[in-house]
Specification:
Layout (H helix, E strand, L loop, with lengths): L11 H23 L5 H6 L7 H7 L1 H26 L17 E11 L2 E6 L49 E5 L2 E2 L14 H12 L3 E9 L5 E8 L7 E3 H7 L4 E2 L12 H14 L14 H42 L3
Parallel strand pairs: 3-6
Antiparallel strand pairs: 1-2, 1-5, 2-3, 4-8, 5-6, 6-7
Helix pairs in contact: 3-4, 6-7
């Protein structure tokens, strides 16, 4: 209990000091109630707590389990993303069955073998992942030989010398869906009228360019049937359906088959384009109806001729074998006589 201030023996400063000491005592009492006691060792040594990751994981098992699960899930997602979108597919036989009717492959057209098929170098990610310009990922569009149906692109395309040449097992053989171009002469057979025009047009249109192919199905020749697009500067960068453009130019007709024809949902457009080209007598439709022979009829006629040749060859071999047998019988009868 403080002494009462009796003027003039006491001053106001002593009363103020008493009040401040009371407040300090009250503050110390309240802090002592709500704060844990400080040990003598902690006050003397002044140690800092260990906040390292290993110590935190060892003392918090739930956080460590969640961290392990998140790392595992991220690794699996990264692997599946790489396999599905960033892994290069070398050939048509390497395409997973789940990709058909779901995936679109993008790459470089390296060569054109016929009027309705070409070879694609799959380049997932394109230039963003270094294809065609990074060392080790530079490719040459094709062999420099026009007689074999390959591409000689201008200097700004990836056919420049010094880039590695591609083999057939580095590329995907693509068959254009929904169209049938005139057939070139193979194995000594004559070529169809318009076959060379279709081949040269396709080489100029897609040769050495980046092409997108929507996968539809594999065929019996080890190729992949797909709808292919290419972007052209003449169309302001809009992509063009290659099959549709060939039909418009009269360089192909709609593919006709009893079963297994693939159009990628664009059959109506294809037939309309064919009808317009036929009406305008463009390309392969310039000949009369009597002289016109569709690629399907041509292949049927050629296969019939080959079957006839095989039949004649088999008949000649059988005649030769029977003649040989009769000759041996006559020789046996001359030397050993008849029994």
């Amino acid at each position: 209990m403080p002494w009462p201030s009796i003027w003039p023996f006491t001053s106001s400063s002593s009363s103020d000091n008493n009040k401040s000491s009371k407040k300090q005592d009250q503050n110390q009492s309240t802090t002592s109630l709500f704060s844990p006691p400080i040990s003598s060792t902690s006050s003397t040594t002044n140690q800092t707590p260990d906040h390292s990751l290993l110590t935190r994981l060892s003392t918090h098992p739930l956080e460590s389990a969640l961290l392990i699960l998140s790392i595992s899930a991220s690794s699996i997602l990264a692997y599946r993303t790489h396999q599905r979108y960033l892994s290069r597919i070398p050939t048509a036989s390497a395409i997973p069955p789940s990709f058909y009717r779901r995936r679109t492959l993008r790459g470089l057209c390296t060569s054109v073998g016929d009027g309705d098929n070409f070879r694609l170098y799959h380049a997932p990610g394109g230039r963003l992942l270094g294809y065609f310009w990074l060392p080790g990922r530079r490719v040459r569009a094709a062999e420099a030989n026009a007689n074999t149906g390959t591409i000689d692109g201008p200097w700004w395309r990836p056919s420049k010398a010094g880039r590695r040449r591609l083999k057939s097992d580095d590329t995907i053989h693509v068959r254009l869906a929904g169209v049938d171009a005139p057939e070139l002469g193979h194995w000594g057979n004559e070529a169809q009228p318009g076959a060379k025009d279709a081949l040269e047009w396709l080489k100029r249109y897609v040769g050495g360019r980046r092409v997108s192919v929507r996968l539809l199905k594999p065929d019996q020749y080890g190729r992949v049937v797909g709808t292919a697009w290419v972007r052209k500067l003449s169309s302001l960068g809009m992509r063009r359906d290659i099959s549709l453009e060939m039909l418009r130019e009269g360089l192909a007709c709609v593919y006709e088959a009893k079963a297994g024809a693939e159009f990628g949902g664009r059959e109506e457009k294809y037939r309309e384009a064919e009808a317009r080209a036929k009406k305008a007598r463009k390309g392969m439709w310039a000949v009369g109806k009597k002289e016109f022979e569709s690629p399907r009829d041509y292949k049927t006629r050629i296969s019939g001729k080959e079957a006839e040749k095989e039949k004649q060859k088999t008949g000649q071999e059988s005649k030769a074998s029977s003649a040989t047998g009769s000759t041996m019988k006559s020789i046996w009868s001359v030397f050993f006589g008849k029994k």
